[in-house]
Design goal:
2 copies of one chain form a homodimer. Chain A has 15 helices and 9 strands. Chain A has 2 domains: 160 residues, NAD(P)-binding Rossmann-like Domain (Rossmann fold, 3-Layer(aba) Sandwich); 123 residues, N-(1-d-carboxylethyl)-l-norvaline Dehydrogenase, domain 2 (Orthogonal Bundle), CATH 1.10.1040. At the A-B interface, strand 9, helix 9, helix 10, helix 11 and helix 13 of A face strand 9, helix 9, helix 10, helix 11 and helix 13 of B.
Chain lengths: 295, 295
Amino acid sequence: MEKMNIGFIGTGVMGSPMAGHLLAARYPVWVYNRTESKSSVLIEAGAVRGLSPAAIAAACDIVITMVGFPSDVEQTYFGEEGLIANSKQGTILIDMTTSSPALALQIYETAKASNISALDAPVSGGDIGARNAALSIMVGGDDEVYQRALPIFHVLGKNIERQGGPGAGQHTKMCNQIAIASNLLGVCEAILYAEKAGLDPTHVLRSIESGAAGSWSLSNLGPRIIAGNYAPGFFVKHFIKDMNIALESARSMNLLTPGLELVLSMFKQLAEMGEAESGTHALYKWLKIKSDTHL
Amino acid sequence: MEKMNIGFIGTGVMGSPMAGHLLAARYPVWVYNRTESKSSVLIEAGAVRGLSPAAIAAACDIVITMVGFPSDVEQTYFGEEGLIANSKQGTILIDMTTSSPALALQIYETAKASNISALDAPVSGGDIGARNAALSIMVGGDDEVYQRALPIFHVLGKNIERQGGPGAGQHTKMCNQIAIASNLLGVCEAILYAEKAGLDPTHVLRSIESGAAGSWSLSNLGPRIIAGNYAPGFFVKHFIKDMNIALESARSMNLLTPGLELVLSMFKQLAEMGEAESGTHALYKWLKIKSDTHL
């Protein structure tokens, strides 16, 4: 049996290596990116260039999207030139963008009305996870569709879980971002405290990272903060996007998230301070500047 | 050479197993506890009962204190009946209580004026760490004194680090508690979000705990929250004590800790709600109750 054609829309820092893994696994891959140059490497590696989402939809059996903001997802899926209007019946559309759970549900239902299947399948693991095909993939949608898409997910990631019906993947990613947000604040406060107290923060990490204070952020971002290295990692501007989605979603469920709200408000100020393109651990800078100037 | 006499003041849930390990290592151990019955098991195991901190000081070469609040530490060290007034020259006093860095410095200087040495050496690892002699020990004080006390620390713990001069041990413990505080809030918000969104939170943990959201609290306290098991662990009332010390210390250094302040304010309400004797992960209850009633 011939392998299905896979469309890949959004070949940025995450999408490029992911589409590359699918090519390496000998799937026929069609790619589209708004900025054409970003898919040139994939074309050279054997991908076919699609001229629009509509063209990708017409040519492919499965279409993966990995774009930026929920507004980009909407544009890609809806309208006359969108994926849903131009896909064949039976196509599977998989949005791997971190986006709104409510939008995932809307895509699922709109697609279903045209006999098209949709999964929401955001990931964690960042660009390194994407390059190493080691992403965690959190999937929402029908189990039967998930089972059909599973061989593709296995090409892209390692920790793959269907979390429930449509939107459940995005909701799970929101849990991930919510847990990260407050933890990151604690890590930054602890490191700044250590420095203000005249301690060697690297030495402090040795005492605390293996115990109850231990976390991925403390062990992985702590040393970068101490070294003054704020290269992303994960961009401040993208984390703001995710926290906005999480907060809106939490509010729609009448859930109080005071930690998330606090951290989001700090990140908005951080972006205004010119740190939108820094890594999320630049939150430390907010604390330091505010502490040094609030007297 | 005969082994030094070790005094142990405060034989509660932490101090008891710690003193027991010293006995097992064949040190002569003198014990004192305000509530006499709490040291009975140690007496049966071969410890000598001291009738007061002053009596312990008179009999011992090294005195370890593991009491409750900074006010208990003050009472034990200062005044006519205190450790400093009644210790021989050359004695080493080691406060392993989680207490104020400023108080540690005050003890160090007062003791030094009488040719008595003092270390601050708070621990992490909880009652399980104490029982398994697996505590992390964070030490402040003179290096020469630290070196002399090191064989004793090795009986009690595993990850032993001198972090600097007097107060540095307490400051390090504050870093530990600050990192825990905000992280715990993120963990509770994430789990409640998962439940409100209709996800299976145990399943969500499988997706997120191995990645950037991963932490000791998520993996160890998350399952207890999901199971509705709020047994301590670490008591709400003790964490409030620690966070109060950390906040006071941070303020004295002009350090802003918005995460710590937020979590402390929530914990104070949690204690008023009758949860002072619960484990710290009862913070989840605050979120759930407030979310369900704030409409």
